[in-house]
Amino acid sequence: MADVTLMKTAAETALAQAFESAKTTLPGNAESRAHAFEQFNLRGLPHRRVEEFKYTDLRALLREIAPFAGVPTADEAKGALQGSKAFGNVAALQVPFVNGHFVREAVDFHNLPEGIEIVPLREALADGHEWLAHLSPVPWASDNPVYQLNTSFMADGVMIRVAGSVETPVHLRFVTAAASAVATATRVLVVVEEGSSFTLIESHESTDGANHQPNDVVEMLVGDRTNVQHVRLNAEGDKALALSTLALKIGSEATFNSINVVTGAATSRHQVYAILDGENTNLRVNGATMLKGTQHGDSTLVVEHNALHCESRELFKTVVDDEATGVFQGKIIVPHHAQKTDGRMMSAALLLGENAAMNNKPELEIFADDVQCAHGATCGQLDEDLLFYLMARGLPKKEAESLLVQAFLGEAIEFVENESARESLIGTVESWLKARA
C-alpha cells in the first residue's frame, strides 16, 4: 500500500516555521509545547470533514498567519488601554493584556482585594510555579487543535487564586492595538478555592481594519461549594479571526453561571468545555450573538456530567443580519454513573436578513437511565403579528424590530447578576441595533 502524505497549506507551513523559531525563546516546559504542536501538526488546521469544525473550516479561513506580537512599550500599552471601552462602567480589578502580553505595571500587586492572588504566567512558566499543575483541567480539551496551538505558542497570561468571598469583580481586559495584523496566544488559569465566590469579567477588543488572530484560553478549576459568575464580551475588530476557549472543571455543590456576548470579529469561534465533577452542582452557560455583514460566529459547547444530581442549562440566542452566518454546536454527555442528571440545552436564532444563515447542531450523549435531558433548536424571522402590533401604535419599523430583538436577546442576558455588567451588555445590544438602523 502506498504511503499517504498530508499536504500542508501555506498557513500550516508558516505555523511550523513560527514554532521552530519561537520554541527556544518561549518560557516553560519545551517538551510539553513540542508535544502539543506535534499533535496539532499531525492533523493540521481543522476543516469541514472534521465533525467539530464542519461549519467553521479553519483550513479555508486561515490562509495567512500573522506574526506573533511582541511585548508593547509602556507608552503603547498605556495608549491601548486608554482607548479600551468595554465594561467601562463596572468597578473592577483590572488585569490588562495588550497585544497578548500582561501589562504588569498596570496592576498594584500590593493592594489586591483580599482573597485574590495573581502570578504572571511568564514568570510562573520560567520558575516552574506549583500552580502550573492545575493547567489543562479538562483533559479531552487537549485534543482540540485550537487549544493545541495555544499551548504551543502561549507567551503570556496570568494565574489567579481566589479564596473566600471576593466582592470586587476581576476584569480580564484584552486589547490588541497593533496597526498591522498580529497573532496572540494568552493563557489564564483561575483556581477558585472551596467555599469561595467571585465574578470574572472578560472583554476582548482590537483595532478595526487589521486581520488580527487572537487565540485565548481561560481555564478554571472551581472548588466545592463555590459561586462563580463569568461574563465575556467579544468586541474584536471587524477583520479579526478570533479563537477562544473556556475550560471548566467544577466541584460539588457549586454554582457557575457564564455568558458570552459576541458582536465583533469577521470570524469568531468560542469553545466551552466543562466537566461537572462533583455532586449537586448547577451550571448555566448562555450566549448572545449579534452578527451582520458577512460575519461568521461559532459557539461550540461540550458539557460532561461526571457526578450525581447535577443540573445544567444552556441557552444560546443568535441574531443574524445581512449575509452573516451563525453556528451553534452543543453536546451534553452523561456517562453511566451520572444518574439523576438534569440537562437542558436550547439554541434559538433570529434571521433578520434574507441571505442570513444559521447552523444548529445540538446533541445528547446519554449512557445513564435515570436522567432528564432535552435539547432543542429554532430558527425563524421576527413575528409579523408582534411587529404589526408595535407599528400600529406608532413605532417606526426599525424601532419596532429593535424592541423585539432586545426582548429576544434579553432572555439570555438577564441572568447576569452584576448590575453594572448587565447594564453594559444591554448597552452593547442597543449600540448594535442603533448601528443597524
Low-pLDDT stretches:
none
Major sheet size, sense and barrel closure: 10 strands, mixed
What amount of the residues lies in strands? Answer: 35-45%
Tell how many strands the DSSP assignment holds.
19
Helix content: 10-25%
Structural summary, described in words:
- By secondary structure, this protein is of the alpha/beta class.
- Helix content is 23%, strand content 37%.
- It is built from nine helices and 19 strands.
- The strands form two sheets. The chain has a ten-stranded mixed beta sheet, with helices on one face. Strands 3-4-6-8-10-12-14-16-18 form a nine-stranded mixed beta sheet.
- A hairpin with a 2-residue loop joins β1 and β2.
- The longest helix has 18 residues.
- The model has no long low-confidence stretch (mean pLDDT 96).
Secondary structure elements and their pairing?
Layout: H1 10-22, H2 30-43, H3 58-61, H4 74-82, E1 93-98, E2 101-102, E3 116-120, H5 121-127, H6 145-153, E4 156-162, E5 170-176, E6 183-192, E7 197-206, E8 213-222, E9 227-235, E10 241-250, E11 255-262, E12 267-276, E13 282-291, E14 296-305, E15 311-320, E16 325-334, E17 342-351, E18 357-366, E19 372-380, H7 384-391, H8 397-413, H9 419-436
Parallel strand pairs: 1-5, 4-6, 5-7, 6-8, 7-9, 8-10, 9-11, 10-12, 11-13, 12-14, 13-15, 14-16, 15-17, 16-18, 17-19
Antiparallel strand pairs: 1-2, 3-4
